[in-house]
Amino acid sequence: MMHELNNYTTIKLKINEDDYDLWVADSDEKKRVGLSNIDHLPERSGMIFTYDKPSSGPFTMRETSIPLTIIFLNDRGETVHQKKCEPYQEELVDPGVPYSYVIEI
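^ that's the sequence the OP posted. Answer follows.
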């Protein structure tokens, strides 16, 4: 899957004092797949999901084979919810509030 991520735009973003390279999930298909098809995430890398208007609803780890921290951000870039997740976790990750960006690292 890593080679498929070559088709993604990437951005650099500082998260907790560290610089991260994030693949941008900006289409419905990219958001649906997320990081579920990879078995290794390079250090200080991840994915950012962008939404044109505030969104709501849960994320799932059911098909994801690596541990991830999921960070939900509002339209001002402020963290509204954060959760450490295990591979293939059945429990949905629902921030309970609208979000405009989601980062998986």
